[in-house]
């Protein structure tokens, strides 16, 4: 047994049985070993950003890590942006990066680079396996580190000679850390604060909003305290729909978020952080909490945030039952195809138990409202703000949940970052319906151009935010990668095309041609 076999068998024994790959020469022994360990499913991506984004989507849905396989520092660099999104979403990823053989590294070959430095910025744990005798134990520790809590990217750097040399057998899984009970004194002290008359908000994210128990616990606290409850702007995974407590998300635009938080004297933060603006703007605040607002963090490292909220709800004497969203759907829209009518069509048709991977940006502005009363579904978002995640995220989600329909909302500009995900969807037969929101523009940047105070932009500046000339033909691009596609230019046509795409038991794409402005 060589090091590659020991590594893969250890990963499988630790529950990691999917590997999204884009390998090179230094990873060939890992690739060869896949045939000898059929329990590990290898999924090829044609760009490393697809690989890392798919690993993120897989883990958000499966609740456990996938592995990646990347080629040296440049391969890691190509996948880095979506590892950034995984880091921000606290997603568990076992990120395996091949390296030159240890005796070869001092020669400074053309592909030599400081992989540990590149990995360190997006990883909570980084280790280079120094020998084939260590690699199995290193792999088990990487899985434990990835799982946290909270989840994180754990990067294991695998020199080629560690892969090809003889090794011990696979290692046993490493025990996970024990979950810590919430501090009863801290819970009671916070309950006393919430019993007061000052305006309070409960801001939740992470594990709290991923399932019914967390949503109910957060809503129990808010309703008992007379407080507002709100979800972080970009949750990794949010359970929503009819029968679940409805929860508004904090706005992306700082001005709107400040309006939502106006007058709040006490902000209770659970499995997220106090909000700050995404960017600095001239003469605008970066910290979004109101002046004088006291921030209270409930829980802490190792504490189950749902258990902490349940303890707080009990301390407040909160009833077990809470207000829940009623079932509702928009009618099938007619007339012009706009961001609003596109959203209504999706709300009209969204399947029960769907998973939505949302990188809709400006074109998806109205979708949350149009789908709030749909049958229960999960919503995955752009956690770190680095665009190019939507289609890879949907790809990984579909691998994790082959019995569920995945819908990808994808802005046209963002789509061009990782369009190769469509090829992987076709190759693997994944049940993903992609909606391209094509307005021919980086519309979010047109908005930001005004918000940062750039005065009188000229034609050159505006052309940098315009992705026409030539117009992108997403149907041709999708069909060239084996995915059937249709284009729609009015609301009736889009609704019909989306209905046909959702009926396909595999990948399909609908291009929604939207006006350049909302």
From TrEMBL:
Record has Ribosomal protein as a keyword: no
* Pfam short name (any one): TPP_enzyme_C
Question: CDD domains per the record?
Answer: TPP_BFDC, TPP_PYR_POX_like
Domain Thiamine pyrophosphate enzyme TPP-binding as annotated: residue spans:
379-511
Assigned keywords, A-Z: Thiamine pyrophosphate
What sequence ranges are listed for the domain Thiamine pyrophosphate enzyme N-terminal TPP-binding? 1-105
As for family, the record states:
Belongs to the TPP enzyme family.
The cross-references to PANTHER family, in alphabetical order and at most eight, read: ACETOLACTATE SYNTHASE LARGE SUBUNIT ILVX-RELATED, THIAMINE PYROPHOSPHATE ENZYMES
Provide the protein name.
Answer: Acetolactate synthase large subunit
What species is given as this protein's source?
Iamia majanohamensis
Tell me the classification of the organism that encodes this protein: Bacteria, Bacillati, Actinomycetota, Acidimicrobiia, Acidimicrobiales
């Amino acid at each position: 047994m060589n090091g590659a076999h020991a590594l893969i068998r250890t990963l499988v024994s630790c529950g990691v049985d999917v590997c999204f790959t884009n390998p090179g020469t230094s990873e060939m022994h890992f690739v060869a070993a896949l045939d000898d360990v059929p329990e590990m499913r290898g999924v090829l991506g044609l760009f490393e950003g697809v690989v890392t984004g798919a690993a993120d989507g897989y883990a958000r849905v499966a609740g456990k890590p996938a592995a990646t396989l990347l080629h040296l520092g440049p391969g890691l660099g190509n996948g880095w942006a979506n590892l950034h999104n995984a880091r921000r979403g606290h997603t568990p990823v076992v990120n395996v990066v091949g390296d030159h053989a240890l005796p070869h590294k001092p020669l400074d070959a053309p592909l030599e680079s400081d992989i540990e430095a590149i990995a360190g910025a997006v990883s909570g744990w980084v280790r280079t396996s120094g020998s084939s005798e260590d690699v199995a134990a290193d792999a088990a520790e990487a899985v434990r580190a990835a799982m946290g809590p909270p989840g994180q990217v754990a990067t294991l750097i695998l020199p080629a000679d560690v892969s090809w040399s003889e090794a011990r057998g696979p290692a046993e899984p490493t025990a996970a850390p024990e979950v810590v009970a919430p501090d009863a004194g801290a819970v009671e002290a916070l309950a006393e604060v919430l019993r007061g008359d000052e305006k309070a908000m409960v801001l939740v994210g992470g594990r709290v909003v991923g399932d019914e128990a967390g949503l109910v616990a957060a809503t129990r606290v808010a309703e008992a305290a007379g407080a507002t409850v709100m979800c972080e702007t970009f949750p990794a995974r949010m359970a929503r729909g009819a029968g679940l407590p409805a929860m508004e998300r904090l706005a992306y635009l700082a001005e709107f978020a400040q309006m939502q938080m106006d007058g709040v004297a006490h902000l209770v933060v659970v499995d997220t952080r106090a909000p700050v603006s995404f960017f600095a703007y001239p003469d605008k605040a970066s910290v979004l909490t109101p002046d004088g607002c006291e921030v209270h963090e409930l829980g802490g490292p190792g504490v189950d945030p749902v258990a902490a909220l349940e303890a707080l709800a009990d301390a407040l004497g909160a009833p077990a039952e809470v207000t829940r969203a009623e079932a509702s759907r928009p009618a099938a829209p007619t007339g012009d195809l706009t961001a609003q009518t596109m959203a209504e069509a999706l709300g009209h048709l969204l399947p029960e138990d769907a998973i939505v991977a949302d990188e809709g940006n400006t074109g998806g502005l109205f979708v949350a409202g149009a789908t709030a009363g749909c049958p229960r579904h999960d919503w995955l978002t752009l956690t770190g703000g680095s665009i190019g995640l939507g289609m890879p995220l949907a790809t990984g989600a579909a691998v994790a949940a082959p019995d569920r329909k995945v819908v990808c909302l994808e802005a046209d500009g963002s789509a061009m970052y990782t369009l190769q995900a469509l090829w992987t969807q076709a190759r693997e037969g994944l049940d993903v319906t992609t909606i391209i929101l094509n307005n021919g523009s980086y519309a979010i940047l047109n908005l930001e151009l005004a918000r940062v105070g750039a005065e009188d932009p000229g034609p050159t500046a505006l052309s940098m935010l315009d992705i026409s000339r030539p117009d992108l033909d997403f149907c041709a691009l999708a069909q060239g990668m084996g995915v059937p596609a249709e284009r729609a230019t009015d609301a009736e046509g889009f609704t019909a095309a989306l209905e046909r795409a959702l009926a396909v038991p595999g990948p399909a794409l609908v291009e929604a041609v939207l006006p350049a402005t909302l």
